[in-house]
Queue: 4 jobs
Job 1
Amino acid sequence: MKFQVINKYVGVLAVAAIAFTSCKRDPNDTGWEFAPNMYRSVGYEAYKQVEKHPINPMGLNMREPVNGTVARQHYTNVGGRDFGGGDSTAAVNSNSTTMEGSTDLMVYNIPKDSIRTAERVLKNPVPLNEKTLAEGKVLFERYCQHCHGAEGEGNGPVAEVYKGVPNYKAANFQDMNDGHIFHVITHGWGRMWPHKSQVTPEERWEIVHYVQQLKKGS
Amino acid sequence: MYKQIKKISLFGRKISVRTSLFTLLVALLVGLTQVSAQDAAAPADGAASGAAADAGGGASGDAAKGEALFKNNCAACHAVTAEKSVGPGLKGITQRRDFDWLVKWIHNSQAVIASGDPYAVKLYNEYNQAQMTPFPNLSEDDIRGILAYIEQANAAPAAGAAPAAGAAAGGAAGGATVQSGAPSDLFVLVLVALLVVMLLVLGVLLVIVTILSKAVSGDTTTPEGEKVNFADRLKRNLLTAANNPAIRSATIWVFILLVAKATIDGTYSIGIQQGYAPKQPIAFSHKLHAGEYAIDCNYCHTGVNRSKSAHIPSANICMNCHGVIKNESPEIQKIYAAIENNQPIEWVRVHNLPDFAYFNHSQHVNVAGLECQQCHGEIQQMEVVEQRSSLTMGWCIDCHRKTDVNTKGNAYYDNLVQLHDKYSEGTLKVSDIGGLECSKCHY
């Protein structure tokens, strides 16, 4: 009798203890929202999908651009200071001081297997100076370093598991020109996959400058 | 020596001392001869390997030069051992192929394949038709050096293999015992801790029991002398307590205050998703990719410097690596399935800023030069991404009040800084350029 009563109290205490300590929000729960119609966008936002889109394929808010669409910053040869940024159509009229005779707006359409054409035809339209080199370094650190290593020696942390990452300083790489490097970043080469969706042409040319510097080992 | 004899005689009491002495002598002799044999063998091995190295170095090529060449040109795709990486392992390559063939292959492997050489074609197909970079500028001497280095690299570990293997085995055995010991140690510790906790609980329970049983067995009679059971007495005491106005009002106040606090806390957490860490459709680990492999945030979140959104990478960026590695993992298979079926991967958005607040990544990352971690926490240590900051307006404003504008190298701010220095004190904060204006974020 005594023990039954005691058990009852202990039971109540235990339940209370569990109830007070176990109230933790589920990590999958966003919690309460006040007035969701103010929190959620009325317009369709590309990276926020609350409910299915009624018209688009697969209910996505995002749509793929029309076939053949080229983003403005994806022209390769745009002269002068307007390169890559802003209104690329203005570049035709801008007095090109940095590039000689290449004010044509060209979409990079040299196919993957024509690397020799790229080597022959392409010239780096971005002038080599301290600024572009510094920008090239920053971009190299963002997009290349984890495989190619800080010094381009093919010893980045990813390269250890990925395998087959070359050393820029090898004799074999010394005669590779700008066009070759640009083509490789765009379309990939060997085990490397194309990076054209991540790096704009202007950025690629800046990376080319930096890679050329790494190659010389200075 | 005497002790040993004693020991032996102790082990077998029936064996006479003479026989035991004899066995001991024999054992010693055998041991000595073994030692001397080993001593003799060691220099012989050394001489052999030295001779091999000499032969490799003198006759065919400079191994030291070959090592440098190998590390620069070949190591990315070939191992000196028999291990396959991108290309075949090069152990014993000189036995497999003759020198002239190797030179032709290294100078231009595609030409050898095109000539229809059956070995070359087989090799090419075996390694998924991966083209080997041609190395026309490696001279025959260079190639001899590389081959000498490969032979030397394979000979050196072989000579030192026996003791190394022994040590490794010993180490492995030691490691095994340690490993098998470690979890059981932990287990014992946990058990002991549990036991201690249980004993404590038992003690407390015993104390409670004694107190309660005292209460029950002590004064069990009313002033009238009747026997009353525990429940009745409790009821009576509770009634007296409830009728006491001081106790009653104190209880009510405590209750009201607790409810008020819970309500206020609850309302403050409305719309705040701090700690939200949803399960994603693919178990992607930022800890592995951004932490261990040090892949820059920008590599996948390409929009972070250019646009309002940081961008969730599309599957083609995953494929930049996973087109080649880890493709057998079930999680990676999900990406393949998504690409093949042209189905989007339904990642769950973690940071949900309400629509009435404008936020732009490029403004904060590119212009202000903030680190991702300042708002997102230690992403490179998160297995599952979690919302670390509260993302409340107070949190935004607080930072805008404290942070200096990143004016360095940005001509846009030159005049502003001049004016600010002329008319105001302190550095130019974000709040000074409208970081607290309502319409900057709410419009």
Job 2
Amino acid sequence: MQHGKYRFIAGFLVLPLALYAVFVISPFVQSIYYSFTDWTGLSSDLRVTGLDNYRRLWHDDIFWQAVGHNVLLLLVLPLVTLGLGLFFAFMLNVGGRRRKNAAVAGVRGSSLYKVVYFFPQVLSIAIVALLFQFAYNPNSGALNSFLGAIGVDARPEWLGNPHLALWCVTAVMVWSNVGFYVVLFSAGMSSVPRDFYEAALLDGANRLQTFFRITLPLLWDTVQTGWVYMGIMALDSFAVVQIMTVGPGGPDYSTEVLSFYLYTKAFRDGQAGYATAVGVALLIVTMIFAGIVMKLGRRERLEY
Amino acid sequence: MGTTSGNTSGIGRRDLVRRAAALGLVTVPAVGALGACATGGGDGDKDGKQAGKGTKSAKNPLAVEEKAPLDVVIFDGGFGQQYAKDAEADYKAAFPGAQIHHTGTQDILTQLQPRFNGGTPPDVIDNSGAKQMDMGTLVAKNQLADLNDLLDAPSFDDPSKKVRDTLRPGVAEMGRFGGKETWVLYYAYTVYGVWYSKTNLAKFDAQYPETWDEMLALCEKAKKKGVAGWTYAGKHPYYLPFSLYPFIAKIGGPEVLTRIDNLEPNAWKDPAVKAAFEAYYELYKKGYVLQGTPGLDHIQSQTAWNEGKALFLPNGSWVENESKKTTPADFRMAVAAPSSLDKNRDKMPFGTIWASGGEPFIVPRNAKNPRGGMELLRIMLGKKSTQNFIKSVSSLTSLNGGTDGLSLPPGLTSCQETLAKAGKNVVNPRIGDWYVALQKEKIGVGALGEMMAGRLTPDEAISKIQRYADETAKDSSVKKYRHV
């Protein structure tokens, strides 16, 4: 019976799997091969150079800087985005003042907020990056104008300052993604049975306790999925870096990330072979990340 | 989440979703995309599809096959593509039987990389813009046709003169990469330097300051009125060299730049480099650089300069066309050579300027109709096309002259005057063409930008650049070039 079931499933999967193999798996295998060559990307004349690219990678300071930034993003971005997402979603669904007939309710106007939070998601990331580029303009940008209006004398150079630039990039990515998670978590929260909250409130739990004891555990699966997707965002971050930052990738490599480094090597410097080696490194970082998330996320599931 | 998935055996819904997510993760890195542009077909024209020779005549000195189609790809950037279309119309008039296929794009590289890999490149390409193909690699991989055939052909307007002899000085040499062959023809001619507005200087009763002391005095005067002396494209600090490199050459002679281009050891430790860096650093130190400049991109810095918030801007002659929309009508844009640091001790006189070819045109070796590609370039280097180019995009071309009878906009007029004043004292540093990564992200963003933002001292910036240059010199994956 089991056997027949798998054959049944496989029958449906043949076509998509074949497409996947041709368009995703085979370029991967090819890329791994190219990472052992000196392919320029501009001519099909290439030589196998063994581990040369990887040896170079090992001694490439900029590459390690990029890895560092990606790892930092990987830690910070999901934490901040999901944290904010959870907070807002909680406020929208459970955080409001208690009203008649309902044990829990969102803050006033929560349905409007839900829509507003989702706005950034509608904009393409290129537009978002461009908008923020204007906002970060040290002379006439919204941020510094705001600082001026409230009487702060400091005029940070934002993207122009190597200590701030990566945080500016992170902030934009958080801004553009948080809305999606507000909506996602809201959906998750609204399916948590109300009686749980009622019971907790009767026992005298405050909001903090309800959040950590009820909401978060019951939402864990959703949070974990969100974590994986934010990880993907953090490992990519190409568009924001390419459009917004000084250089791009600067100032002084302070916003260099692997995906952008790969791009410059392949498409500016004509070193596609080396770039594929960077790509393979990115693949390894991704695999490690996926492994860790899957491992850490394994928890007993609550059914309700 | 939703309702229970039950305790079924086999694959649960959530497991499936989770596994799918894990699989999706694996596909993220762009590594796959690279391989996708695979190295399909072979190089070379082994199948003999290349167009044959036409009849050589006075009207057709390159012996273009009259009926062979012509495939043109033009970078649709600051200069647009109309000038090329106009020249193609002239080509069509000369060879009515030829089909012309014109493509205008900003994505030169992404569009053409597969065609080069597949051995079917177009016949002539304006390989320009942010997504240009790396010229050194194309040359090293023997992908380009030698344009000496074109340069030795009779010129379009005067058959008694070779094309080579009608070009501005230095343009033909720029197209070489260390050998005798000319691989690239630069069509536009760009003047780099310190850009300013005569109107805005007049507000301070000033002309362009010919010495650095006068420059500092003027900046001080402006500062008191709340106007900054300088601004630059802080996000792309590789605009600074446009006035800084000729400044170095002026102080220490052109050989300093030659040594820098050649990546010679300690080339950057030259006292002229230090003097020039310190002079620029002083602009920052004394607060003459517009506040917030390190966070401005080229357009934002140009706009601030157009609005009169800063007096001087290192830039190239495309700025007049690029900033057209924000330039006030009475701006009276002009360009000047770097001021004298020390009139008596500088090795070159005031007026020493950086000017060189822009818009690199190439003809691929494996093109179907390379002679046709060259013929189009020959037409473009004629007076008619040149004047059309100057008028429509307000930039000079590599054709020497061609401006008589035209009324030029102020910036371009100033370019002409500055070139005339420079005479033979035109320098042309090549480091930016030869070593893009070194020039743009290492020297530009990594050192000059940091210095002008006050985060590095001139000495630190010089050591950093020297280290970068040494690294590039040792990097076997970068092809090296030298001045000959």
Job 3
Amino acid sequence: MKLAIYIAFKNLLGAGLRTWINVLVLSFSFVAIIWIKGIMLGWDHQAKSQLIEWEIGHGQYWHTNYDPNDSFTWDDSHASPSDTLLNAIKEGRYAAILVAQGVIYPEGRMVPVCLKGINTTQQVLKIPTSFLSQEENSKSSAIPVMMGAYMANSCQLKEGDQFLVRWRDKDGVFDAREMELVKVFATPVPTVDAGQIWLDCSTLQNMMGLNNEITLLSLPSNESNELLFSNEFQFKSKEFLLSDIEKMVQMKSKGQSVFYLVLLVLAMLAIFDTQVLSVFKRRREIGTYIALGYTRSEVVRLFTIEGGVYALLASALALLYGYPFLLWQYRNGFKMPVDVAEFGIAGSNHIYPLFSLALILGTFLLIAFTTLLVSYLPARKIAALNPAETLKGRLS
Amino acid sequence: MPETIIQVDNLIKKFPVGKGFFTALDTISLRIESGEFAGLIGPSGSGKTTLLNILGSLDSPSSGEALVLNKSIGKLGAKEAADLRKEAIGFIFQTYNLLPVHTVYENVEFPLLLLKRTKKERNLQVEEALEWVGLQSKRDSRPSELSGGESQRVAIARAMVKRPKLVLADEPTANLDAKNSFHVLDTMKELNERLGVTFLFATHDDKVIQYLRRIIELNDGQIARDYTPEKRQQS
């Protein structure tokens, strides 16, 4: 084996440019696969952590009737938490949200919206709720509200603009008031931005006639405290709340896998082509090996090892330029060529890839295995040649 | 009493051609003793190379017996045949068949690597073999940098470096000019005499034939004549 490795190295290094072109292509695939997978891992990680920071906290309690995807359930999805919890909400230890339907009329246009009242003291979510406090906005009689940049842009609204809102209270009575956009915030999470208007929870409770009632509650830590809630609220774990995004990232990841599969196939084609070409170009050499005392299986082994050496050299080359590149990417991130919000999932437009040891080792093993395979297949063909004919440079 | 290196009895070799067979060797019997400098001669298609390939365990007989160093070629497994070639048989080819990415030194060293000789042993034996063929100064050259004569001398050194009992040379001078042919033949003859290695050629080159001490003439796969050059002159 040692001798075969030595000869394989010697043969490849002796082949000069042909070897290095193959090694370069293979190393490119190696780095590209790790990079693409790293982007997906980073995206997954970022999307989840941003969703935790901006929307779900470390788990939520939902009113039993509440279905975020069915607005008809919202009218009946509210209840009063216990007094203990109300105090905790006032202290900002939980983010309490009341959800209601409404319609706004910016510049005469009608836009259906989801009104979300949130306690301004909350410290669980990154939503800048302090802008909503009445003290800050006492000069105007309009209701101070916030919206995300995407929503503001789609409604053609800017900070300071006022617009009419119409809603139905708990008894189904329509009412309307002026709202003032006091803050437009940038968020990487589309589900706290698109179609949403954020206002002080107590203001919305007054508007709806739902004193102290809330729809859901985000928790600061991953705990379900049954004592805090009545039967009207149901605990939703962080894992449950993240499952949708996990599925979406997995779906995107599968799409990306096709891309790196193509890369891998291209690299393997280069190796396969070289090894198949060897059957024709190196047939005399193969005959010579056999004449000097190699068995056919040893020739197969030699050519398969040559494939393995390709993988080793490609890994070494990939390390040479891939390590600084991936490190640079890890530190500086990657600007997505399209707006991530268009994908409908959380994630900033600047993704910081994550590279795990498992990813790097897995990619190396994948490349090594496929390289060995595409080297072995033509080598089997070589082994079937008649040595007496190959010695003369002929194919039998 | 000289040792029998090759013993062939009623050897037949047939190749499939279409639905039938072509008989390349037809009931060949011969014996070659240790230290001989013999040649198979005859026109193209007479079976010289086929016989040489069988004796070199690169091919097997269809029927009959071919014993090389008391080993029946037809009964050898792939590993045993490879071991026989590795340990006891040296090959010299018309097209030299040097390994292109290896230097002269490495080409000559190759058979010793297969025999797992130590580095010290290899160095001694390679230097000696290069001295036999007068190519010490070319030890670091690659085959592409050598002339035809030099390449064939490297091939001789490679065949001889492991001190084989038998060297099979298939048209060794076919690609060489007269001067290089004689140089190569002188080298082989000297090694035969000095080391007692048995040489068996397949050739139709007159320059080679005039060096042979025994000539086996093949025609249509059969031995037409088996004689020493003196007898040929007499006849």
Job 4
Amino acid sequence: MHWIILPVVLPAMLAPLIGFVMRHDIVLARTASVAGTVALLAVALGLFGMAADGATHVYRLGDWPAPFGIVLVLDRLSALMVLLTATLALLVLIHAIATGWDARGKHFHALFQFQLMGICGAFLTGDVFNMFVFFEVLLIASYGLMIHSGGRARMQAGLQYVVMNLAGSTLFLFALGTLYASTGTLNIADIGRVVATIPPEEAALVRVAAMLLMIVFAVKAALFPVQFWLPGTYANAPAPVAALFAIMTKVGAYAILRVHTVSFGPGIEGTEDLAATWLFPAAIITIAIGAFGVLGARRLMPLIAFSVLGSMGTLLIALAAFTPEATSAGLYYLVHSTFAAACLFLVADLVVRRRAGDTLTPRPPTVQNGLFAALFFAAAIGMAGMPPLSGFLGKLLVLDALRAPGTIGWAWTAVLAGSLVTILGFARAGSVLFWKSTATPAPETDTPVAAAARPLEVAPAMAGLAVLALLAVFAGPLSSYLQDTAAQLYDRAGYTTAVLTPETEG
Amino acid sequence: MEIVVASAVGVLTAGGVYLLLRLRTFPVILGLALLSYAVNVFIFASGRLAIDQSPILSKYGEASYTDPLPQALVLTAIVISFGMTAVLVMIGLASYLEADTDRVDLDAAAEGEDA
């Protein structure tokens, strides 16, 4: 039963060890970090298998019963998110090591492990204050990773990112204070139980708290109107870090999904209309901002950052419906868009370091132009949602789930038009980067030609694309698993009973 | 009592938000510090205000007590905000030394350059 806490404890033990003992030996730190991440992946697979039976496993820290002690909760959704984190982390870590990003500054691996600790903890916790603490852990690690290897633009973007998130954390605390004052509990399941007993006309304070929480999570998920930090941050972060950050926006989406189903969800009169009312229009505007940003970007990294924004809009439009069908479609798209965004950042990193900067202007072709063009093409069609990769299926599932009369017009228009504009943006960027460059003569200078990418440098991006292909091939079994996941998520009584019933045996 | 606590939270928040919207690092850091003071008082008050009462149950009688949980929460919040302020000061300082300006917004020149 102690397996549930391992995704938190393992990186938490490893990170200080790497930071203090192995800080002068990059080879040792790399070995430990990879070993730790592989072990995390193995644990995540084990937990995934454990949760697949549909039971809600509860881990009581210090064996205190639920509303008084802190609990970790493992159900299908948490297990899926932890597995997603571990898989992505391994790809990103191998890329960072192969390309030497990790050696460009200090403490990359220690921060990386702390980041994993925070993300896994946020996915597993069953208590909103504990979620705040894990958010802070993942944020403080992300501050360090964001400014890894320094540079003027990166430091300034990092400062903005930190200020934005500290303001968000303060808002989180205000939300928690309001919630505690009005319900007297901070356990996610217990909040749901208490809020359900509050008559709608007296629920004003709870509604304020629920809305504040949603704004906080929207900051993390980069939802309009608090999306403006994302393009600058992702475009200026080191590319492998930006690829890892692909999971960070999903932490926000996960938190909205968890808290606004279990605590304030459908069936709870006082608060059930809140999320759907505000989330849906915000998601549509987010798609529009993402699409126009992709079309208007003049550099490659901001272009990818805006496409991440568009994908968050598509994800949240599905989650905003708060029905099991739409949520399972949204979860498929969540898994897909995480890998698609990470792939794009990894491929872009390979290309950009062999060109002078990431501006979208024709430059002489780099080495292995054909290989990079093929990888970028594959990742871009994944992100934009064209067949045969999983982006197409993901968007199809989302569209299919959003067929209610009131939503179909807005949702279909936004998703389809957004996809079209995104395809245009990517097609333009790809043709400038890879086709027009072949017509540009190489300058007659004796600047050293960048080395060709070694197989290990290309492998993580290719593995990510392979995951997208596998998601498309095994879409059937996966989406039936995700339907079970969504069904379990909306079974609030099951969750509440599992968490709040005192454990009988030791 | 209530009016004092409520207006303290309000004034601290207002001052914090005003300073947060300035464009230079130092006022922004002060603003975030004020906001975190405001939220600490706010959380403290979320367990209801009580004077001269201990945060423990008495087993010897019907003595009234004050809610201990917000006190624990506020301790966590203070520690975290303290650490975060230290990180922010360091990053602000590094950003100032790197860019020779302590403006928080990215100017157009920095936007066009490569990292």
